[in-house]
């Protein structure tokens, strides 16, 4: 079990699929969301949570003031967990989309303020680079991309249109942040 760390649903437990999902630890989520709140990017934000898994990141954003969160996950079982977690926490604004991330991103529909990219650590670095490239047209001018990776993997190849910030390392987890150049 995991939990929503803070906000309107703070302390509520969320269910995690038993296989194939590696939820962001409470400690890393707490540090990440403290950073996001300090930057003022959560209030009324539109959020895109890619590789949603249990939905922990998107739901945490909703709990802390985001307006909407589109949670993209290809695994039907995990999508069921995300829907159940959104319902049991009472958080509104969650929209679950069952699709592969790359397929979903090929058709930008909305401009978003905040994107969480949390692929399986076993995924290829090339896939991460492709996803980052596909995100550029989705981002608002003040948008922010947060990429979670294993600290042992290489630094992502940020595409033209995104500028990387200094990574934040939390043990075996590294958070890479990027913002639009324009």
Automatic annotation (TrEMBL):
InterPro entries in UniProt: DNA_methylase_N6_adenine_CS, RNA_MeTrfase_RsmD, SAM-dependent_MTases_sf
A Pfam short name: Cons_hypoth95
Top EC category: transferase
Gene3D superfamilies (UniProt xref): Vaccinia Virus protein VP39 (3.40.50.150)
Tree of life domain: Bacteria
Keywords associated with the record: Methyltransferase, Transferase
Designated name of the protein: 16S rRNA (Guanine(966)-N(2))-methyltransferase RsmD
The encoding gene: rsmD
């Amino acid at each position: 079990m995991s939990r929503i760390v803070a906000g309107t649903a703070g302390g509520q437990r969320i269910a995690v699929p038993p296989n194939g999902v590696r939820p962001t630890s409470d400690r890393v989520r707490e540090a990440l969301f403290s950073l996001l709140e300090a930057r003022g990017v959560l209030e009324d934000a539109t959020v895109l949570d890619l590789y949603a898994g249990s939905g922990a990141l998107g739901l945490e954003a909703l709990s802390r003031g985001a307006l909407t969160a589109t949670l993209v996950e290809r695994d039907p079982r995990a999508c069921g967990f995300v829907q159940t977690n959104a319902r049991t926490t009472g958080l509104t604004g969650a929209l679950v989309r069952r699709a592969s991330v790359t397929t979903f991103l090929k058709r930008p529909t909305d401009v978003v303020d905040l994107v969480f990219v949390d692929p399986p650590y076993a995924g290829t670095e090339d896939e991460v680079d492709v996803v980052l490239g596909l995100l550029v047209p989705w981002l608002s001018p003040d948008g922010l991309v947060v990429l979670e990776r294993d600290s042992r993997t290489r630094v992502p190849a940020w595409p033209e249109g995104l500028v990387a910030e200094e990574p934040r390392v939390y043990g075996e987890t590294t958070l890479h942040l990027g913002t639009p150049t324009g």
